[in-house]
Amino acid sequence: MYDYTEFDAAFVAERNRQFRQQVERRLSGALTEDEFKPLRLMNGLYLQLHAYMLRVAIPYGTLNSRQMRQLAYLALRWDKGYGHFTTRQNIQYNWPKLRDVPDMLDALAEVGMHAIQTSGNTIRNVTADHFAGAAADEIADPRPVAELIRQWSTDHPEFQFLPRKFKIAVTGAAADRAVTRAHDIGLQIVRRDGQTGYRVIVGGGLGRTPMIGKVLNDFVTQDDLLPYLEAVVSVWNLLGRRDNKYKSRIKITVHEHGIDDIRARVEDRFNLIRPTFTGVDLALFEQIKSAFAPPAFRTDSTAVFDTSYRTDPIFRSWADTNLAAHRAPGYAIVQISLKAHGATPGDATAEQMRVMADLAERYGHDELRISHEQNVILPHVHKSDLPTVHAALKKHGLATANIGLISDIIACPGMDYCALATARSIPIAQDIARRFDDLKLEHEIGELKIKISGCINACGHHHVGHIGILGLDRAGVENYQITLGGDHTETASLGDRTGPGFSADEILPAIERIVRTYLDYRDSPDETFLQTYRRIGMEPFKTALYDNAGANAYAAQ
Amino acid sequence: MPRDFTPKVVTANALIEGDVVYLTRDDQWTRHMSEAELITDEAESQLRLLMAQAQTETVVGVYLAEAKAGANGPEPVHFREAFRRTGPSNYRHGKQAELTDV
């Protein structure tokens, strides 16, 4: 893992010192709120419905046990004993007091973490595939380049006042687990003629005007990557609409100018600035890369795992659902579900964070990952340790076997916390998870991703959910629109709206009708919800949702 | 014809804690919506808003929220204000854990 250099540590310490003084000046009245607000946002501090909220970056979703323990400490010392992991690999604390925030930032700096550029019109936390460095299908670990981009983008003088926020995601595998096609820039590491380079995708994004990203360049070499990225952001910085914040993201710029025009402008800009990159970035990249060298994987028997798998059905169910293929023989990637049925998606208590940190330290080469799906990953666990790890997780409510299933729901904080929300998300997620747990249907249903946003800004990624739910305010009442057929992977697509929305009371029965329609129509248990939807289209689902006869038939079941 | 004015309360967040607060008749800030001043006159509401917005050392994000008269003082009209008055629905945190009369 990357450890802060003296430069990094000094930079963060300086920013924290400045922010401490800014808070003091705000409290003394020397700064007005109008003056203070941009300063606090630059340091990840929002004001929400009930309290302040501090958003801490977890760059490319990677943590070590010490960092995870410190996140637990912050939750206990300055918050209400829990934290909320987000779809952009951040953690949010929902209850900090303004005067405590400088201490929280200092505590984060002790473990090489910060909240810089987690808000504001800057380049935000760089996210990556949560299986990075472990996935069997990976071409290269995306984290070194993500760290390079973090360093390049942090306090980049040209990019502190962009037209709007700017989000970058990186994947090192063809299977896209980082939602790269719904980012301002998505990078995919590719190989061509024995050389490693990057496919650059631009103009993806969700929100009010959802767009799937377009390929700007099929292959950019490592040597050219940073100047190329700088050219992209630079072109948008000039062209991007500052007159209308709903049209300011690069997806609109690409849409209005066309990808070919943007490509030509980027080429021009690239040619201009390329000579100013003297190779320092490449030397730095090599240093960073060495910090991400794979751990020393051990060779050991997996007999213990095999026995537990054969004899313990609960362990087997968890192993079948929550493990993913690791590239090292005898190892597995463990996905820890933060989606216990009825719990708040993405929330972990301080105690749970400590348990996960301990397991990572003892059994996981000291590494943890946060996924954009709001779960925690132990990327490197030897199979012989899995029964022990599972038992420890179970004791702390962390062994729910539901990864990728209907109760593994992405949900934004919604109107329970967020000042922008138009409806609640969390209670809808809780209801759906509880209902399908009661029905004992979720393993039969198989892979099905429900994503819920509490407003049009789509932090809950509803457009790319197999079933997407968008909470709106319709004449002072919560109302939920449904989309079907969204896909967040390399075959990305936006979901189609079913029709009129449903009230908070009606949304759960509506989801149940959709799922039962799928079960009726699927070819075989192997055909996933998304495959069935792509084969049969919207009509059967519409009928089940809106046709009275269809609705009654299911209501009677 | 202009729309009829609906009653309002002045609300904000406390600068240090971030707690939801309401302006009372005697120019104090209270954590209890029931103790807030229910303003029924539009011109008066604008004056009260301006006065509250000037208190930048105490509160942030001042605005007028629709409210109605209830048995024990003002009550929220919109569900957003109902959540602000009590706290999140997933945990018993916020005002619902700290206050007894909400």
UniProtKB/TrEMBL annotation, chain A:
Classification via SUPFAM superfamilies: Nitrite and sulphite reductase 4Fe-4S domain-like, Nitrite/Sulfite reductase N-terminal domain-like
All residue ranges annotated as the Nitrite/Sulfite reductase ferredoxin-like domain in the record: 52-111, 345-395
Superkingdom to which the source organism belongs: Bacteria
One Gene Ontology MF term: 4 iron, 4 sulfur cluster binding
Residue ranges crossing the lipid bilayer per the database entry: none
Protein's name in the database: Sulfite reductase (NADPH) hemoprotein beta-component
Coiled-coil intervals: none
UniProt xrefs under InterPro entries: NIR_SIR_4Fe-4S (IPR051329), NiRdtase/SiRdtase_haem-b_fer (IPR005117), Nit/Sulf_reduc_fer-like_dom_sf (IPR036136), NO2/SO3_Rdtase_4Fe4S_dom (IPR006067), NO2/SO3_Rdtase_4Fe4S_sf (IPR045854)
UniProtKB/TrEMBL annotation, chain B:
InterPro entries referenced in this protein's UniProt entry, alphabetically: DUF2849
Highest taxon of the lineage: Bacteria
Pfam families (alphabetical): DUF2849
This protein's name: Sulfite reductase (NADPH) hemoprotein beta-component
